[in-house]
Design goal:
Length: 998
């Protein structure tokens, strides 16, 4: 070890040294007596915090979720007195490894996440460090304000993290980065002293007061001033000549004439000099108008060469995307490729803002300039409409996560040279040279970024368990950073140094300047406890390959899986991921790169309803995925942990099988299937948790309910009966059950089938009716049969059981397999005759299309999977074929449509709206405020009901407040929304039923 500045050695060496004689148990005990917030100390809890969005991993000693500034002060004082490292963490979205470490980790997102004040008159906002930038943006937008730094991770990165890395984003070219907007900070220094920063005139009374005592604050004021004044020429000369910089300490920004602002030093410092507990930030009025231009080029060099002229027009943003990102975006934005010429290799998105006339003039000036033939551009498209601009920006904002989807064998994008900045006039040359480095080392990579600042994000694809690739990694970094230095640029523009780039700071700044950084660190953190090993280090460039999440020595435990993995040639999987096959279990677990998108709270994505509702790291897809990864690591958690009560609760209570992670996760990690696998192995040893067996054997109990109806319905609505039933079965007394019908759909259809024999039909389809229609709403089932009949479709209903989804995902795959075998054997013969299978229930549809293959990967099961359609999808296909009966009664309705998560996963949302819009007079709009939280059987289990309502609270409130009737594609969603909002909610098939006069 070389001390805390060095952070040299393996994770375990750092871990042992960090305790300074205190055990983890002792540290936890003492911290628990100090703080009001939670202290997490179990090894599995620490394990899920051991990584961030980077390639690195270090197990923390414990994790503190502070509730107040007093908590932070208490923890810091403890760390100071005992020499224990302390690491402040935002959303854990950092790409350079700055939010991990072998010490006490502070997670501010749980409690210290409030916007304290917004002043539209004085144009400032005061916020706590744990508030997500996206949440702050929402608050500001309501006041007509915005904070210009806008990183692509804004939905899931925090204000504290934005300050720590000097965040910027696409609009820096006009508005500058975070350091420009920090007016004052409230900071806890290394010894627990709390200070307020802000600009102070040197020599003033305030200056004398702040700099004249023996406190750490006074020492910092005197010492930093002396460093700056003595070395001003060196500081100025070594600054990168670029518009973005989050590398090293921003010493040059502290002194402005006679004004001294210590707060600027904490910006970009990654929590190594002090811990920000509150920030006052300058904000601006939202521009009256914005407009975009999309320019497409045959090469990156052509695009790079065009940037210099674009900048003469003073745009607010100039963004670059390459063709690989476009290919990856196509799965999420299927219409995108149609608007992009095949020969396009690079695209520029150019934004102007200001008054509407000014924006229009600038856009037309840009168009005229590039249509003149002066530049080699393939096409130009102007966008003024809000929806079109939003779509383009959405693609750009998701470029970083989309880029993470790329993989080639075991090679995946690795973030280590992904944040370089050069003067835009050198951009074309730099891009050419960068690709030359990649070619030299035989790697491929994606390129995108903030071209207006000469700022590129690029990630070569590498295998982080390959010794050969790891040797390349340091060499590639050295060459790329050497190029950056050649072009007088900066090795990190907005993502920080962390473990990835701290070792290269001498290359960036030279040894003399790095010596000043060490002096600053010593002044403010004399005991070296604040996020050690970041910004200042005695380890050289090889720091980049230490403490890797994987590495050449990484080994897995052998895992005998309960489900089938590596399933190939499944249409839904291909639609979701863009790949022809899913991964094997181990590689699926390792697919998560830790970006934290599953923690977003703006409802720009459905995932993860559990995190949205409950807010702990284990509630996030990333947290649960990390838990499984640590279970699989040879040197991870003890294998016996797999059968503990804590593990069982983690895998059962923190996933509701919505499967939206598979769609929304940038890497398309199928966390729901991973949880199903974990549950299957757990239940095989420990048995199913109480209550679940009744849903796994649903047909048995539902048939009893129907046979006893209406008496069974009276019992299930009786509080006197439900209380002992809850105790006996584990089924929540709070959950309302849909009424059982005496005569099931199967029985009613047999009677109705006689009428079908005498009618003429042009085609036939197989109907898989599933649980709800059979036992609870057979009338709607018959109505669907009649709807199909209207278009000349004869409905065939083979014998069938319920889909078996609860068994497949809740830990009983063998029971699920038997149900799958029964249904597949009944359905496959019809598919072989060319008939499609139609599902009303989205959950039944996804079961037949995906879940059955997890336990029954046979030719017949594949036939069923590839020929199953959602009812909306099927009816709209009839419309496209020109054979749908469209003799609809006009419906004078303005309806809100909520989509079941499984409708979205199957990619049938477009068909739902297209079909409903065929009905005259009917106006439909998507109600998107997240998942309802029902989670199938989840919300029926004792202790889960309140959790499910918490997960769906935003949607339930939206339903409650809606001035329009709400309809859903899913029966379980309908029931949850009705109970949670107190309002009647319909099904989309009810609208079709009404339009067909049925």
């Amino acid at each position: 070890m070389k001390g805390w500045f060095g952070l040299e050695g393996s994770n375990m060496e750092v871990q042992r040294s960090a305790t300074h004689g205190l055990t983890v148990r002792e540290i936890t005990r003492r911290l628990s007596s100090i703080v009001e917030g939670e202290v997490l100390s179990e090894e599995w809890e620490r394990a899920i915090y051991a990584t961030d969005g980077s390639s690195y991993e270090v197990l923390p000693l414990c994790v503190v979720l502070p509730k107040t500034e007093r908590d932070v002060v208490g923890v810091v004082k403890f760390a100071w007195e005992n020499g224990v490292p302390i690491i402040a963490r935002g959303g854990g979205s950092g790409l350079a490894g700055q939010a991990i470490g072998a010490g006490i980790l502070l997670d501010f997102t749980r409690h210290m996440n409030k916007v304290a004040e917004v002043d539209p008159e004085q144009n400032y906002v005061i916020a706590q460090p744990g508030v997500y930038k996206g949440i702050l943006d929402q608050v500001l937008t309501q006041k007509g304000l915005f904070l210009p730094p806008d990183p692509s991770s804004s939905e899931f990165c925090t204000i504290g993290g934005n300050i720590g890395t000097n965040a910027s984003g696409p609009r820096t070219v006009k508005y500058g980065s975070m350091i420009r907007y920090v007016e004052s900070l409230r900071v806890v220094l290394a010894d627990g002293e709390v200070i307020e920063t802000g600009p102070i005139e040197i020599g003033s009374e305030e200056w004398v007061r702040k700099s004249s005592s023996d406190t750490l604050e006074s020492t910092a004021y005197r010492g930093v001033r002396e460093i700056v004044e003595k070395n001003l020429r060196l500081i100025v000369e070594t600054q990168p000549k670029v518009t973005k910089n989050s590398s090293g300490y921003r010493i040059e920004a502290v002194l402005n004439g006679n004004s001294f602002d210590l707060g600027k030093l904490f910006v970009s410092s990654e929590g190594t000099l002090g811990i920000v507990v509150q920030a006052k930030l300058r904000v601006l009025k939202i521009p009256k108008s914005r407009g975009l231009a999309l320019l497409q080029f045959a090469s990156h060099e052509d695009a790079g060469a065009a940037v210099a002229e674009i900048l003469t027009l003073k745009p607010s943003a100039v963004e670059m995307l390459d063709d690989k990102v476009i290919d990856l975006a196509e799965a999420a934005y299927p219409d995108l490729r149609q608007a992009v010429p095949k020969e396009t290799e690079s695209m520029l998105i150019v934004e102007f803002d200001g008054d509407s006339g000014e924006v229009e003039g600038l856009l037309h000036g840009l168009e005229s300039s590039f249509r003149s033939g002066k530049h080699r551009v393939l096409s130009i498209r102007l966008a003024y409409a809000e929806a079109e601009m939003k779509n383009l920006w959405e693609i750009r904002k998701k470029a970083l996560p989309l880029a993470q989807k790329a993989r080639k064998g075991d090679r995946k994008p690795v973030a280590f040279v992904e944040d370089t900045v050069v003067n835009p006039k050198y951009l074309a040359e730099y891009i050419h040279d960068l690709y030359g480095v990649y070619a030299k080392f035989g790697v491929i990579g994606v390129v995108y970024g903030h071209a207006g600042d000469g700022h590129l994000h690029t990630r070569p694809l590498m295998d982080m368990t390959s010794a050969e690739d790891l040797r390349k990694l340091e060499a590639i970094a050295a060459e790329v950073f050497g190029l950056v230095k050649k072009y007088d640029g900066c090795i990190t523009g907005e993502h920080g140094d962390g473990l990835a780039r701290t070792g290269f700071l001498p290359l960036q700044y030279g040894s003399e300047m790095c010596s000043l950084f060490k002096q600053v660190k010593q002044l403010l953190d004399p005991r070296g406890i604040l996020n050690p090993g970041k910004k200042v280090s005695d380890v050289g460039p090889n720091l980049i390959t230490l403490n890797l999440r994987y590495g050449a020595e990484y080994q897995r435990r052998p895992v005998k899986t309960a489900l089938n993995w590596g399933i190939e040639r499944n249409t839904v999987i291909k639609k979701i991921t863009g790949y022809d096959a899913e991964l094997e279990y181990a590689r699926e677990v390792e697919l998560c790169h830790g970006c934290g998108y599953c923690r977003e709270l703006n409802y720009s994505a459905r995932m993860c309803p559990v995190y949205k509702g409950l807010g702990s790291e284990v509630d996030s897809c990333r947290g649960r995925n990390n838990l499984l990864r640590w279970m699989m690591k040879l040197e991870g958690l003890a294998s016996s942990f797999e059968f503990t009560e804590e593990y069982g609760e983690a895998i059962y209570k923190h996933c509701i099988q919505c499967k939206m992670c598979h769609v929304d996760c940038p890497s398309n990690v199928n966390v729901a299937k991973l949880m199903a696998e974990a549950r299957a192995r757990y239940a095989a040893v420990k048995g199913l948790p109480k209550g679940y067996k009744y849903f796994i054997e649903l047909d048995k109990y539902a048939e009893q309910g129907c046979s006893l109806a209406p008496f069974s319905n009276w019992l299930m609505s009786s509080g006197v009966f439900r209380a002992p039933l809850e105790w006996l079965t584990g089924i929540s007394r709070k959950r309302a059950f849909p009424s059982f019908q005496r005569k099931t759909f199967a029985k009613r259809f047999k009677e109705y089938e006689q009428l079908l024999q005498v009618k003429q039909f042009h085609r036939s389809a197989v109907f898989f009716y599933d649980t709800y229609l059979n036992y609870n709403n057979p009338e709607l089932g018959i109505a669907i049969v009649k709807i199909l009949e209207k278009s000349g479709v004869k409905t065939i209903v083979p014998t069938q059981k319920s889909s078996g989804l609860p068994a497949l995902v809740e830990g009983a795959p063998e029971i699920g397999r038997k149900m799958a075998e029964y249904n597949v054997s009944s359905l496959a013969p019809y598919v072989k005759k060319g008939l499609p299978i139609i599902c009303f229930s989205p959950s039944a549809g996804i079961t037949l299309r995906m879940e059955y293959l997890n336990v029954l990967d046979t030719d017949d099961a594949r036939l069923v999977a590839e020929n199953t359609l959602d009812i909306h999808e099927y009816l709209y296909s009839l419309h496209k074929a020109g054979v749908l009966n469209e003799d609809f009664k006009p419906l004078d309705k303005d309806a809100l449509i909520h989509l079941h998560c499984h409708s979205i996963v199957q990619k049938v949302d477009g068909a739902v709206f297209a079909l409903l819009r065929l009905i005259p007079g009917l106006k439909v709009e998507r109600l998107e405020r997240g998942c309802c939280g029902v989670g199938g059987s989840f919300s029926f289990i004792k202790d889960n009901y309140d959790l499910s309502m918490q997960m769906g609270r935003e949607l339930l409130k939206a339903v409650q407040d809606a001035g329009r009737q709400v309809y859903s594609t899913g029966e379980s969603c309908m029931l949850q929304m009705q109970q949670g909002s107190g309002r009647a909610v319909g099904l989309t098939m009810d609208l079709l039923r009404e339009a067909y006069r049925l």
